[in-house]
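Task: sequence design from structure.
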């Protein structure tokens, strides 16, 4: 979890939470050519084309410090996606994370890929097929030990 404690004279305590684009697996049960693990780079390329920087996770601290904030504290955590963790609290968080991922990513992907796809915008059908393949991969071999850095 990238949680930044911002200390500034007008607001002594502020927090900012960002997640990294894409997901990963430390347990070796996903290949490097997986749509799920490679998705982050697809989103980042769309962001480059739309002239928006989607790599906030990696650069936020330096930007906050450049804006004049002092005593910036950074903490990175991993959030599970799915019910594979043993600990009940992590299992519940993973269940919610997976629900949010499944329900929120389709519209976001459709917008990004049909307007800013690389090397040119994708058709709506291409974007829907890509999402369907991601979703199929997501549920094809449960439980994937996937996580997202936040």
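Answer:
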């Amino acid at each position: 979890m990238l949680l930044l404690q911002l200390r500034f004279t007008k607001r002594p305590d502020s927090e900012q939470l960002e997640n990294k684009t894409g997901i990963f697996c430390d347990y070796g049960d996903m290949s490097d050519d997986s749509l799920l693990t490679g998705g982050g780079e697809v989103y980042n390329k769309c962001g480059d084309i739309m002239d928006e920087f989607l790599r906030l996770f990696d650069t936020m601290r330096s930007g906050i410090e450049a804006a004049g904030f002092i005593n910036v504290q950074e903490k990175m955590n991993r959030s599970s996606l799915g019910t594979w963790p043993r600990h009940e609290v992590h299992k519940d968080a993973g269940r919610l994370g997976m629900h949010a991922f499944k329900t929120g990513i389709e519209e976001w992907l459709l917008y990004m890929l049909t307007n800013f796809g690389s090397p040119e915008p994708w058709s709506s059908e291409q974007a829907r097929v890509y999402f369907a393949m991601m979703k199929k991969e997501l549920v094809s071999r449960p439980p994937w030990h996937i996580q997202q850095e936040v």
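The first strand starts at residue 2 and ends at 7.
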